[in-house]
Amino acid sequence: MATPSPPAQDSNLRGMAVSSISLVTFAIGANLVFLRMYVRMKRHVTGWDDYTICIALALSLLGTVADVYQVANGAGRHISTLDLTQLSEFIKWTFVEGVGFVVGTFFVKLSVCIFILRFIHRTRQLLRNFIYVLMGFLVVSTLSLVIALLAQCRPLKALYVFTVKGKCYSKNVSIAVAYVQAAINVFTDFTCAGLPFFVIRKAQMPRSRKIGVSIIMGLGIFTACFSVLRIGFLYTNHSKDVTYDYLVNAAFAVLEMNLGIIAASIATLRPLFVNLGPMARRIPDNRAKAGSRGSGTLLSPMGSTKTNDLEASQDI
After folding, report:
1. Which GO terms describe its cellular component (predicted)?
2. Bridge partners for 168 per DSSP
3. Whose CA is closest to 100, among 151, 135, 57, 137?
């Protein structure tokens, strides 16, 4: 009689797929942020929108590392195939990824808000005030969510070390926190994605450039859609087979954050391509002429000013 073979390990193609998505989108984002910083430093217009997107990229790297460790410890496999050590490591790195996602997406949206302020003339005070209020809301909501995540177990180690006794949130509280976070993300994502269209519409720049910038910034709408899709898969956070089911939610989170970094950076790279092709038109550097064209000013990083929307648009 033939000896029965041991049960085969289930394939981890799901885990490898999410790791691949994370690594590829991070690599694209990292290259675009590098190009963004090159353009801004070359043109001497670096500002807080650039610094905050770099912080977001660093947190994206943390999330990518967390994804790799999650997969190495069973993410994508059925929970019945894992031992307690693997499950403990999976929970720990899922927590790290969650905190990194909340803070990372905050810095992406903060960078977008600061970037948009470059276009807004100081006479449009109502719109500027709205963006400042939105930035304040982002700060308060992000701090609240991070505190909620850090306080879910006391001590926190009880979350992922099964031998440590502690007091943790009930399942209902954890679900409520997850849905509140998702709702805030949807609201702030679509608000940040929609703002550029209101700004560009009245900006003093050629129509062709308006259309181009609007299309690029419209990538933010596409990115925001992933925050909506994530809501439909939040139940996987508390699935009985969480290591297998959670991967879909993780994939949407990765795409939401990394595509946000990509969209925010592409919008700044026009100076790299403005001279490509016979139809391209060279954009003169008007910084030396600031102060000689009208009296209005625009917010610009590092304390510099722009005299109109067209000049501001040349820095993206």
Report:
1. membrane
2. 153
3. 57
Q: Helices in 267-308 by DSSP H: which ranges?
A: 270-273
Number of H helices, E strands in the chain: 10, 4
Q: Is the peptide bond before 155 cis (omega within 30 degrees of 0)?
A: yes
- For the chain, 316 residues long, the average pLDDT of each consecutive 10-residue run is 45 81 93 92 87 94 91 86 89 91 92 84 78 93 92 89 86 84 86 77 66 66 78 75 82 88 84 56 44 40 41 49
CATH code assigned to 14-272+295-313: 1.20.1070
Q: How far apart are CA 147 and CA 151, in angstroms?
A: 6
The pTM is what?
A: 0.79
Separation of CA 190 from chain center: 13
Dig out the tokens for 23 from the structure.
């690594």
